[in-house]
Amino acid sequence: AVVETRTGNRTFIQTVYPNTPAERGGVMPGDEIIAVDSVSTVGFELPKVTERTRGDPGTKVKVTFLREGVPQPIVLTMTRAQVRIPAVPFALMVEPGIGYVPLQTFNETSADEVKKAIVGLRAQGAKRHPRDRPRLNFYAGIAQAAGAVIACRAA
Asked: Residue 143: CB partners within 8 Å, gap ≥ 6?
């Protein structure tokens, strides 16, 4: 999961990635981490909180959360695992003939993930991509810099 710090060094879940211990445990965006292994993390700096949640794959960690609308703290015991953050979290058609592929990080699989997303969108009828729109040229340039194969406008 991606965590963020808000006012007063409070640590909140921002994003929960699929196929991770956080997702399997039922963690939700907006949950606030208040304890790790029964030690309060209230007021901790973000690096200290994340350090406490990390550990060897296969080991257990108990995290206590506050969730809006839930009166009691939620205690989840999760099994740590190697987490892979996808470079392309999704791909979608933004309007007929135009596909959108967000690139959220650069890693060893970024180019393959972008290519796979574009192939999938073309199968759904995409003929254009953000590079075809002048205001979005910057984003297409980033994808090209990552070595991604950007589909060109269909003839």
From this structure: 101, 103, 114, 150
Residues 6 or more apart whose Cβ sits within 8 Å of residue 84: none
**Is pTM beyond 0.70 here?**
no
How does pLDDT run across 116-131, given as a tens digit for each residue?
A: 998 898 899 988 665 5
Structure letter (DSSP) for residue 31: P
Higher pLDDT, 116 or 152: 116
Give the Å distances, CA to CA, from 129 to 86, 87, 108, 115.
20, 17, 23, 12
Reported confidence tier of residue 8, pLDDT bands at 50, 70, 90: confident
3-class DSSP assignment, residue 139: helix
Question: Where does the chain show beta strands of DSSP type E?
Answer: 2-6, 10-15, 32-36, 39-40, 60-66, 74-79, 92-95, 98-100
Name the amino acid, one letter, at 51.
Answer: E
List of long-range contacts for 126-130, beta carbons under 8 Å, 24+ apart: 126/93, 126/97, 126/98, 126/99, 126/151, 127/97, 127/98, 127/153, 127/154, 128/97, 128/98, 128/99, 128/153, 128/154, 129/98, 129/99, 129/100, 129/101, 130/100
